[in-house]
Write a structure and sequence with these properties.
This protein is an alpha+beta fold. The protein is built from 3 helices and 3 strands, in the order ββααβα. A 3-stranded antiparallel beta sheet has the order 2-1-3. The longest helix has 20 residues. The two termini are 34 Å apart. The mean pLDDT is 78.
């Protein structure tokens, strides 16, 4: 959704609520503003790891992108990681497919029925 709105996040916040009414919030800043799946997924996993055992007993986990900026304000860096660049190109193609055919057109293969 961030890419579709032309935004990038500078930070992610994980909020956990527990049955006793207590809560746990942790925010981590990204090295640079990003709207790319790999960057956001990696930071989300780091937040979940930081929560440790708390995720097993939490009732409403909530992940939120914070400190949003317009993608026109972000600088493009040159990357020497060809695999990352390939994933970013694929991400753009997936976004175009979802825009044209709907958000459910691309997803895990296990949710699709067999053709034969």
């Amino acid at each position: 959704m961030l890419r579709r709105r032309g935004q990038a996040a500078r930070a992610l916040t994980l909020s956990l609520r527990f049955a006793g009414g207590t809560s746990w919030d942790k925010t981590r800043r990204l090295p640079e503003a990003s709207a790319h799946d790999d960057d956001l997924r990696t930071m989300a996993y780091r937040l979940i790891d930081a929560a440790g055992f708390a995720t097993r007993t939490a009732h409403r986990p909530h992940l939120k992108a914070e400190d949003l900026i317009d993608t026109g304000q972000t600088a493009q860096q040159i990357s020497l990681d060809e695999a990352r660049e390939d994933r970013l190109v694929a991400e753009t193609a997936v976004d175009r497919g979802r825009d044209k055919f709907g958000p459910r057109i691309i997803g895990p293969a296990t949710v699709f029925r067999r053709a034969s």
